[in-house]
Amino acid sequence: MPIVHLSRALLDEIRTHGKETYPHECCGVPLGQLAPYGGRIRAMVRAANTRTDSPGNRYQIAPADLLTRFAAKRC
């Protein structure tokens, strides 16, 4: 089973994002390198939850928002 590694700082960033968006769902995309037997997350891209009907238990990422945020981060 492949193992994906991430730093304590990135884990803290994920937790912070969850706390900031609570009680709504939060969204994001991990960026990094994959290898046959694992990988390493190098950055996290936060994305806004655009769901308005039930943001507490569903999420949707706006494609344009995601592309803009991807362009700002490079691994």
Describe the protein:
- The protein has about 80 residues and is α+β, with helices and mostly antiparallel strands.
- It has one domain.
- Helix content is about 30%, strand content about 30%.
- It is built from 2 helices and 3 strands.
- It has a 3-stranded mixed sheet with strand order 1-3-2.
- A hairpin with a 2-residue loop joins strand 2 and strand 3.
- The chain is globular, with a radius of gyration of 14 Å.
- The two termini are about 25 Å apart.
- The model has no long low-confidence stretch (mean pLDDT about 90).
Compute the separation of the termini in Å: 24 Å
Radius of gyration: 14 Å
- Bin the strand percentage: 25-35%
What is the molecular shape?
globular
Q: What are the low-pLDDT stretches, counting only 5+ consecutive residues below 50?
A: none
Whole-number tally of structural domains: 1
Helix proportion of residues, in percent? Answer: 25-40%
Outline the biggest β-sheet.
Answer: 3 strands, mixed
Structural class by secondary-structure content:
alpha+beta
The topology string of helices and strands comes to EHEEH
Q: Number of DSSP strands?
A: 3
Strand order of the largest sheet: 1-3-2
Would you tell me the overall average pLDDT? 88
What's the total helix number? Answer: 2
